[in-house]
Each structure stands twice: as structure tokens, then as C-alpha cells.
């Protein structure tokens, strides 16, 4: 009785970016589930049970969490950033829809967090400034031609683009192929930013442009931002420049 | 000496969704600038000076804030949600780029927040589940044909869409026109959600579909979410349904 499940976004990394709502929910949890590095970051009561699983076992983890909630436990599934943006929230509802009807009576909620793209943008300036999109370059869950088609149409639409999961050991060539498509549509001087591990150890920002952008500088912890014709680089007296996208658009 | 400017996102509305980082920066401010309803929500030291301005005076407000920081004040410009998503961050950097060179030596930073789209998605379930975009339907700063073109291409790309500023007294017909474009591309049963004032007084969620979606139910405080072929409605034992977008995409 009284079990529930909350899917909680922990924000980009720093404790100061975890919302009080997320902290309060975590403090009540009896069980915590998630990918190891996220579970490690979560502050819970000392006797909360921590169920760590590999990053690729989302549906299984979601079913486990739902079963625990059904058994009366107070369950938190954690994601980095926001759980609704390439995080665990979708997997939990997919598991719920495919599971026993009783799960539809459970108290399930999602607690939003500061997503990686918002943290990266804030760190760099205001690159999202206008309309934008977020696209995962991973082809684990969608065909690669769908990924490229989305990248192409978003560039034609003039959307600022945040590319999640740009590169991994299993697919080192994806980002280069995406840059190839983008270079057919956007000018070479289009601003490109690499934002690595924002708010965490190993943080690094690179501001470059589309013709020079080197996929070798990018790893799985990096978010890649592609600007539009309105995106500007503003030199500072000291330090790396700010990047922002003007709100005003004069034409397509 | 020692002046700085921080552009701070206050989150969707509830205090429990303001990050500790944002609260700490607000506590240090000597001057607070912003649109009235956001300034009202911000918790500062009692002697902080509050400069309230109309919602349409962003650039002027940004210049005022930069001048105060240059004069040695500790200045916070507030936005609702995240300041980088249709908020004040872009205006501040635009003012900075166009202003005196000395402003390029200022300590200017952006503190991210939980954006309206993340809060709305969490409230509903996990509608963003896959690739998504955020588009403002306002034509104050971009031509209306650019808005419609972006809506059309995003639908063709299969992106979940979050439509900001969907409707105002000055342009009551914009959302209906956008629905008209979308109905040419997406099936009538595509899931549409209206998320009004999430986390604030007057919160309301409507789950409908594209063929039935009625712009009359939408006002300027509403965020409109348009699903994809992967977006599902899951009935609950009690209460309104959950909406989520499956992560797996089988074709375009």
C-alpha cells in the first residue's frame, strides 16, 4: 500500500542544479534504480536500496521499478539532466503500457530537471536563442536514414540543433556523416559548439564553425550545438567567447 | 568594482522547481530586473532594488541591466522557465554585442532553469520521448511564413513539437493556421496536448488529437505539444491519461 514511482531528472551534474522537488522525492525513496553514474549522484536516505543496472537495460529497469512500486515500495528511477529528454521517462511508460493492467492504477509521476541542452546552452551564452530542436544521433532505436533526414530537415527549417549521443566507440563515423549533410545545406561559417561534461569533472567547451568542426574532438559525453544564420560569436576581453542566437529572423 | 550580471531561469512556477544555484544567485543580487510576474516570484534580499518592466521591452531592459553591472551592482535578470529558451538570455547578449566595448569585460553568466516545455512534458508523462523541437508561433520577431515553414518541416521530420506563444489577442488565428498546415502532413489521430500554466495557479491539461484540436481552448499561457506516429495515450485506472512518445522509430 502507498507505493509510488517517480522518474527524476538529476540535472547536468552539480548538486546546486538539482531542484528541491527532486531532492525531496529522493529523500522519501525506499528504492533507487538507474545507470550507475546517476545512482551514485543521488542523495537518498541511508537505508534506501540502490539497484544499479547497465545503461542499455532501460525497459527491464522500468519493469523492475514498476513491480517494486506495485509491491508498495517508494521507488525513484533517476536520469541525468531531464528524464523526459532521452532519459528514463519514456521507457517507464512503455513498460507500463505493456505490463499488467494493475500498473495503470499506480501513482507514477515525472519530476523534471535541468536538461543537458539547457545547461550547455547556459554555459556558452544563449545559443538556443530562437527555435531549436534536439536530435539523438544514436541509431540504436531508429534507422540511421531517419536520423539523417531529421538533421537535414531541421537545418532547412533554420532550427538551432542540439545533437545528443553524437559519437561512441561503436559508431565513430555518425557525427562526421551528419556534418557532411549539414555542409550541403548550411554555410561553412555556421557556428558549431562542442559542450563536454557541462557542470561535471572534465568540462570543456569548443567554439568552432561547420567547415572546421572536427568530430575527433567529440565523445559520448559531448553535446554538439549547430547554430543558424542568426547565431553570433561575441569576443570577450578575457576568456572564451560567448555564443548567442539572435531572436530576430529576417528571412528563411 | 565587483559588479556582475546573471540571467536566471526561475523554472515553471513552483518554488520547489527553482534550482539552489538560482536561489543562491538571487540572494546575492542588489538589483533585479524583469517582467512583473517573474520579478514577483523571485526571492531576494529585502533591500534588493526591483526594476519591473513590460514584457516587450527586452533589449532596453538588457541594456539597463548591463549598465548597472558596469556600475558595480550585482544584477539578476529573471525569466520564467529557462532564460535561454524564448527568455531574456539572448536579448542580454544582443545588447552586450551592440553596446560599449567595456561590456565585453563584464562578468556575465546564465543560470539554467527547468523550462516550460520540460515541466509540461513531465506533467503529462513523457511526450518528448524522442527527437523534438520548440518553436515560437509569435511573429513579433520573425516573418509568419518562416514560422509556418518551420512547423511544416518539423512535422515532415517526425519531430515532437512544442509550440510556444501559440495564441494572443493580437493574433488569435495563428494556432489554427498552424493546425491547418499540420493536418496536411500528419494523420488526424496524432496526439495533441494543451498544457496551461503548468506548476502555477490555473493549471490545466487537455489531451486531444489533431483532427479535434480546438484553438479556442488555448491562450498565451498554454504550451501546445504535437506528437508523432510514436506518441501514445495510456489510460489510467483513475484520472486523466498519460501521454508518452516511444523511443523506437521503425521508419520515417
Shape verdict of chain A: elongated
Main beta sheet strand tally, sense and closure of chain A: 5 strands, parallel
Count of discrete alpha- or pi-helical segments spanning 4 or more residues of chain A? 7
Strand order of the largest sheet of chain A: 3-2-4-1-5
Q: Supply Rg of chain A.
A: 20 Å
Report the sheet-strand fraction of chain A: 25-35%
Q: How many strands in all of chain A?
A: 13
Q: Which blocks of ≥5 consecutive residues of chain A have pLDDT under 50?
A: none
Helix and strand sequence of chain A: EHEHEHEHEHEEHEHEEEEE
Question: Helix coverage percent of residues of chain A?
Answer: 25-40%
Q: Report the end-to-end length of chain A measured between terminal Cα atoms.
A: 56 Å
Mean pLDDT of chain A, as a whole number?
A: 96
Assembly category = homodimer
Most extensive interface: A-B, 82 and 82 residues
List keywords for this structure.
alpha/beta; 7 helices; 252 residues; 25% strand; homodimer; five-stranded mixed beta sheet
Outline the structure in words:
The structure is a homodimer of 252-residue chains. Chain A has 7 helices and 13 strands. A 5-stranded parallel sheet of chain A has the order 3-2-4-1-5, with helices on both faces. Chain A has a 5-stranded mixed sheet with strand order 7-8-11-9-10, with helices on both faces. The longest helix of chain A is centred in the middle third of the chain and has 14 residues, at 144-157. Chain A is an alpha/beta fold. In chain A, strand 7 (132-136), helix 6 (144-157) and strand 8 (160-164) form a beta-alpha-beta unit. In chain A, 29% of the residues lie in helices and 25% in strands. The first copy, chain A, is elongated. Chain A has helices at 20-28, 36-41, 58-70, 89-98, 116-124, 144-157, 174-185; strands at residues 4-9, 31-35, 49-53, 74-79, 107-111, 125-126, 132-136, 160-164, 191-196, 204-209, 222-226, 231-234, 242-245. At the A-B interface, helix 1, helix 4, strand 5, helix 5 and strand 6 of A face helix 1, helix 4, strand 5, helix 5 and strand 6 of B. Strand 7 (132-136) of chain A pairs antiparallel with strand 7 (132-136) of chain B, so a sheet runs across the interface.
Amino acid at each position: 500500500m502507498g507505493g509510488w514511482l517517480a522518474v527524476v531528472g538529476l540535472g547536468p551534474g552539480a548538486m546546486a542544479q538539482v531542484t528541491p522537488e527532486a531532492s525531496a522525492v529522493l529523500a522519501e525513496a525506499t528504492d533507487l534504480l538507474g545507470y550507475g553514474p546517476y545512482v551514485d549522484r543521488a542523495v537518498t536516505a541511508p537505508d534506501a536500496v540502490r539497484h544499479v543496472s547497465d545503461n542499455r537495460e532501460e525497459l527491464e529497469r522500468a519493469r523492475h521499478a514498476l513491480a517494486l512500486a506495485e509491491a508498495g515500495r517508494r521507488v525513484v528511477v533517476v536520469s541525468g539532466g531531464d528524464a523526459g529528454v532521452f532519459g528514463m521517462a519514456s521507457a517507464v511508460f512503455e513498460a507500463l503500457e505493456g505490463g499488467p493492467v494493475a500498473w495503470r492504477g499506480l501513482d507514477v509521476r515525472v519530476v523534471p530537471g535541468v536538461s543537458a541542452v539547457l545547461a550547455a546552452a547556459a554555459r556558452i551564452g544563449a545559443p538556443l536563442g530562437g527555435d531549436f530542436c534536439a536530435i539523438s544521433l544514436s541509431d540504436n532505436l531508429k534507422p540511421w536514414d531517419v536520423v539523417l533526414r531529421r538533421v537535414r530537415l531541421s537545418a532547412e527549417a533554420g532550427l538551432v540543433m542540439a545533437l545528443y549521443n553524437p559519437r561512441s566507440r561503436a559508431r565513430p563515423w555518425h557525427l562526421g556523416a551528419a556534418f557532411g549533410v549539414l555542409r550541403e545545406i548550411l554555410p561553412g561559417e555556421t557556428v558549431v559548439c562542442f559542450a563536454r561534461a557541462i557542470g561535471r569533472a572534465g568540462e570543456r567547451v569548443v567554439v568552432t564553425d561547420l567547415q572546421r568542426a572536427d568530430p575527433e574532438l567529440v565523445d559520448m559525453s559531448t553535446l554538439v550545438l549547430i547554430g543558424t544564420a542568426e547565431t553570433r560569436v561575441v569576443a570577450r576581453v578575457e576568456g572564451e567567447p560567448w555564443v548567442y542566437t539572435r531572436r530576430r529572423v529576417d528571412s528563411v
